[in-house]
Amino acid sequence: MNPESLAWYAGAFLLALAVLVVVHEMGHYLAARACNVKVLRFAFGFGKVLWMRRHGSDGTEWAISAFPLGGYVKMLDEREGEVPSAELPRAFNRQSVGRRAFIVAAGPAANFLLAIVLYWVLFMHGVTELKPRLGLPPAGTPAAMAGIGDGVTVRSVNGKPIETWQQLRWEVMQRALDKEVLQLEVISLQREIGVYRIASDRFDLEQLEKDPLRLLGLVLFRPPLPAVVGRVQPNSAAALAGFSDGDRVLSIDGKAISEWKQLAAVAGAAAGRQLAFVVERDGRQIELAATPRMTEEGQHKIGRLGLMAKEGKGEAFEMTTEVSYGPLESIDRALQQTWDTSILSLRMMGRMLTGELSWKNLSGPVTIADYAGQSARLGASYYLRFLALISISLGVLNLLPVPVLDGGHLMYYLVEFLRGGPVSERALEIGQQIGFALLALLMAFAFYNDINRLVSG
């Protein structure tokens, strides 16, 4: 990755971190102020303080620290130092169980609220989405065995209306997780309506980090495209071979190539084998040699060159649709999307704990930075959608009943409410040690997965 791309990805990641962390901590801060609890510091990041200013009647310190993966709101508390008698009513530990729970829960609630607002804006503004049109399924896949043809458009999945490819992906993945039989209502190119039943018992949870629809044979329809390169992915096999944007592929190993699907088929079947290309560039014919890199897709190993096709306005119109809703319907859809995403996140975490889902699906900061950069390059709507998704994940994670997380504190307050007295200091100390150990283990898994993805490509 060149320095310019690295700076772009790092900037997109840091901006996402700043927004998500500040929103989360602002939830705690505003709730504390509403309960008249004194806030001593509002910090973005941990470690050495790089910048700090005092503001407000309470002289709250607003700080930016060196390590940006998080933040905190420090409140007046007798457990962390001596509190003047005149300010005891404003100490956090002197508040009722209900008020303390409200302040703690406000952080994750702010993340969910951010996601709702972002989805609401996106649904109202309108987004360009891929149409839910299916290409010819690969032989032997459940979709191929069901008899799905090329170019059909999905209208519903198990009775749920479908308007975009993203909605199709979402509905299929949720049902396939429970091995449900998928009932797809489609309309053909001849405007004929058909219903197909697809067994999802072959849905491999180990392959979730790949394309979950392709595992079932549900592939995106692509209109015929000329074999012209639209973009060469950095550090790819094609980039190393010297391909450039705008190259027209004329032949591979002496075989004439006219359509992009021919190029993709040859490259896909040649993982690890060098191919001889003849391309046309600026009116000249050039010979290039490239070796497609082997990648796993479900149970299959295929070759990837790292080339993207050049699409004209006609192809884009045929593949995309503009989706927008009114203000009220957008709110309803935003609430539903946030709820569905939260529940799916919990289900995925639960399956990781039971061993049904591999821990390799856990992502760390490197992978998140990659997604941040990719979504930012695609445009504002994609980046805002990415922010909404990560904000939901942050909210769900913080509500887990793990000591040191917000959910762990809420668990303590529930115990205090039920038994009529606070949890002992010894129990809090042990819980904190367990919580830090669990978080360290979680981060170790996440970093390992990040490194593994970088090494394996």
TrEMBL record:
It is an enzyme of class 3 (hydrolase). SUPFAM superfamilies: PDZ domain-like (SSF50156). The keyword Transmembrane helix applies. Its cofactor is Zn(2+). It comes from the Bacteria. Its EC number is 3.4.24.-. InterPro entries: PDZ, PDZ_6, PDZ_sf, Pept_M50_Zn, Peptidase_M50. Residues 202-258 form the PDZ domain. PANTHER family: MEMBRANE METALLOPROTEASE ARASP2, CHLOROPLASTIC-RELATED (PTHR42837:SF2), REGULATOR OF SIGMA-E PROTEASE RSEP (PTHR42837). The chain crosses the membrane at residues 6-23, 101-123, 382-404, 430-448. It holds the Pfam family PDZ_6. This is Zinc metalloprotease. Keywords: Hydrolase, Membrane, Metal-binding, Metalloprotease, Protease, Transmembrane, Transmembrane helix, Zinc. Belongs to the peptidase M50B family. GO terms for cellular component: membrane. It is found in: Membrane. GO terms for molecular function: metal ion binding; metalloendopeptidase activity. It is a multi-pass membrane protein. One of its GO terms (biological process) is proteolysis.
